[in-house]
Description:
The structure holds 2 protein chains of 2 kinds. Chain A is of the alpha/beta class. Chain A folds into 2 domains: 7-132 and 281-300, Aspartate/ornithine carbamoyltransferase (Rossmann fold, 3-Layer(aba) Sandwich); 133-276, Aspartate/ornithine carbamoyltransferase (Rossmann fold), CATH 3.40.50. Chain A has 11 helices and 9 strands. In chain A, the strands form 2 sheets. In chain A, strands 7-6-5-8-9 form a 5-stranded parallel beta sheet, covered by helices on one side. In chain A, strand 3 (100-105), helix 4 (110-117) and strand 4 (121-127) form a beta-alpha-beta unit. In chain A, helix 1 packs across helix 5 and helix 1 packs across helix 10. Chain A is globular. By secondary structure, chain B is of the alpha/beta class. In chain B, the strands form 3 sheets. In chain B, strands 1, 2, 3, 4, 5, 16, 17 and 18 form an 8-stranded mixed beta sheet that branches. Chain B has an 8-stranded parallel beta sheet with strand order 6-7-8-9-10-13-14-15. In chain B, strand 17 (431-441) and strand 18 (444-448) form a beta hairpin. Chain A binds chain B through residues 85-87, 105, 107-110, 112-113, 128-131, 165, 168, 191-197, and chain B through 215, 218-229, 231, 297, 338, 341-346.
Amino acid sequence: MRHLLSIEDLDRPGIERILDRAKSFTEVSEREVKKVPALRGRRVLNLFYEASTRTRSSFELAAKTLSAEVINFVSSGSSVEKGESLKDTVQTLSAYRPDLIVVRTPHVGAAELVARWSPAAVVNAGDGKHEHPTQALLDVYTLRERLGALDGLSIWIVGDVLHSRVARSNIQAFSMLGAKVTVCGPPTLIPRGVEALGCDVRYTLDGLDEADVVYALRMQKERMTESFVPSLREYAARYQIDGRRLNARQVLMHPGPVNRGVELAAEVIDSPQAVIGQQVAAGVVVRMAVLYELLAGRTTPDRQLVTA
Amino acid sequence: MNAARPDGKRGAEPLVHREQPPADLLIRAAHVLDPRAGIDAPHDVLVRGGAIAELGAPGTLDAPEGAEVLEGEGRHLFPGFVDPHVHLRVPGQEHKEDLDSGTRAAAAGGFVAVVAMPNTDPVIDDATVLRSLREAGRREARIPVGFLASITRRLEGDALTEMAELSDAGALGFTDDGKPVHRAAILRKALQYQRLCGGVLALHEEDPSLSGAGAMHEGEVSARLGLAGIPSISESTMIARDAAIAGYEQGRIHIQHLSARESVEAVAEAKARGVRMSAEVSPHHLTLTHEAILERLDTRLKMNPPLRAEADRQALIEGLRDGTIDCIATDHAPHAREEKEVPFEEAPMGTTGLETAFAAVYTELVVPGVLPLALVVEKLSAGAGLLGLGTPRIAVGEPAGLCLLDLDAEWQVGEAGYESRSENCCFAGRRLRGRVLATVAAGSVVYRERAFALSAA
């Protein structure tokens, strides 16, 4: 694997290899000195065109724990604000010879463009509403830790599927590992044709009891102004996961940040069924495993250029 | 049905181009196919002084003194194509295309006349702008070019242009192409005014409240990619609305670039009710679907209306076959490289199409036996009649508007660059069959394929 642009770049053995390696990295975080030299001397460039706290910091932590050098490039205060195109930015930053670029942008397919324009390996950390493959991997990791294999599990993804890159990556990753995925939300927020991804579609939470895992998506406030839902109140009344709707057997997930009282009621966020904190923790080891997968044992693009 | 003025006043010459020496040519033993003239057999065709002088059995005509001989054996001679829908980007966007490069691209595609859209900068909404543009056309255009003027000022949809004066100044008709006429009352007034000034109203059909910020067809592929979708109904509902208005006012409308099955149905229903309307379809909507975007998120595949699903493509093919759709039009829409080298959602809509129109349709639809060659040849020039222009014919006495092709020649789109100033062709990299070898427009040779020119010399 040269890049991780989409969950489709992986197959089941590939996902399992990354998860197993992530598991082996958990031990590092328990040490007093939280660092291993696996990627010493490698350069990782974080290229973020969108606000992000946990994704960017967990990639940074992952790279540093593996002893890589990290450069952070965020769009505000950079030449992007002076009108530099993505292509020029990528080509300019590629002159620093990064071994790997982590990129987040508000545009579908932008990570693929970065991969086309730079010799570096590229990890998609979210491209518009398209995909967020490392989120899917850390979610799968979290579930494996909690429940073991995903085969035969019923997973409901609830909320704004239309605008969610997490949903698109997770539907595919969960299905690839043998789970049965159902998406549920207001019809205005379920994309037409989403069944093609291999999931069932429901418009109400009736039947939620069958789910082994309930994955709530973030409900963004701006969706109200665009008439996707008439009000947050009505949305919460129909789709909020609360103590009544979540049964004791079910695991609750959320990609964060949570809107308390909208998609999730406070009582379930703080319940032992919620694995939201574990998802965040998994983010670091899973991203370590992804960086390792793409960089360890591979000739750096710099060296390829030198020897060419 | 045509652009003739009901008040009997004759407007300006409909088409303009740079004067070039009239051709004296003998095209020897080419397979002549002119469906309208009922010709489908090898002939010698003699062109003298730019007009078709004689048709004879193969090998029977001699080249007169000074005439050039084009070897046509094993090749096909068609009436030249006419494109009622191109963007030549002049004035104001000459970095994308200009009159010379756009008409050179057209000639290379076998076109002998094109009609340019008014969504330029400034918009062609004023007779002064139109007159100066036509003046530039007389200096620069390699093949005859006609112009549509806008229906509303600055394409803003609020106020009608001075349609009668624009018509006098040479506008073939009117369109706000690139945008719909979103207010029904404005379209109605334009149709009423059409009784005075003539000229077709060519309509880009899209309900912006449904298409929104969509970047591609709404369906399985957009769901997978997370791209905002443009639903088929954003087109078909506007066609239904505008057909109702045109029927009420007994006006004449032309529906541009049909893309959806529902749209074909809407046109068929309106035509059956007797609404005076025609419709066009592009080569890309006939040959590609949104699946191509899944294979590669390529901004050259982003256009408006978008590539739709296979069922839509099949409906368009059927519509062309049964006459619901009257002609093929490229909607040639050049954009500069830096404008297209951006993420998909950021890229402007549009693909070039003049140089690939015939080969794309021939390769994808004629070679596999989906559509007969004669139908495709006829539909590639049928746009002329819809806009009140003369349709090229291969008949003695007619001005020569011809294209000579090698149907067996295979080529890769873009491998030798483009005649167009822009390279945003949705067929880039595809191998197509059917190569234009020479084009004769308005009686002059306007294009020779490089290798062919060498062999003929």
